[in-house]
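thought: fold this chain, then report.
action: predict
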Amino acid sequence: MGHQRLGDIPKTQRWNTVVARVAGGGGGGAGAGGSVGGTAALISDVDSVASDVLDAAEQGLDAAINDPGLRFTFYTLTQIVLAARQPDWQSELASLGIHLSGESSLFDLTSDVQAAIDDHIQKLGRRTDISEMAQKAASDALTSLAGPRAKTLFGSGPDELKDAIHELSTKKGFSRLGQKFFGRFMCRFLNFYLSRITPQQVGSDRLANAGALSDFNEALDTHCQQSAGIVRDFCGEWYSKTEFQKGITLENTSGFMAIAVKKLQAELRKQREDQ
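observation:
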């Protein structure tokens, strides 16, 4: 099976702006400042860096919105949490290609989710960078939100795992899951491109060492998570209303995804303009 890659950003003026921003040469626009500064200055400019990358990678984001793997991954998240509402959730999960035993852990669940999505993508005949980002974002979201709840004073087992996932099946719970997923996905998308620049800057005034690069990546993730708050309520409302009125399908999930990604894209750009 082939793998469709996003590729490098063309060497355009927009991409040059990203390079200049990371290197500390300003790059124009609100908040650029033109000052080299250090890691703290780069981190404080993370909103502008994120927005500049979105500008330069506009075609890549368009590809993301239309990516079948992204759509199917989010659809799978909806079906997993809905399965936790059923008495025999293992059978419900099995219908999705996710097979858990009585001893399965959250790690087993996320591994099987990855395998089920891989099987679906394989049937489509191609794998993409976008689908990989989406799968990892889904695993991150489930692990970070369900992980702490799957472990109790009585240990961690199938009942605790189901209860933890069930908490994400409510309108409020899915709002949190949606925000976490979109935040992690957007961070991975931006870093897909930024990783062509940031390692080369290690040892510079802006990124003195590997620790500074780690701090910047953490700041980028936090920024994306906070920005994804724009789709938090939208996710919960869509999930609750759609499931109640007609049921969630891959088709209506696809329409929702296009709107949600555009909302997050607009929010990231707006934050630069507000500086």
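thought: worth noting. Residues 8 and 27 are 20 Å apart (CA to CA).
final: tokens above.
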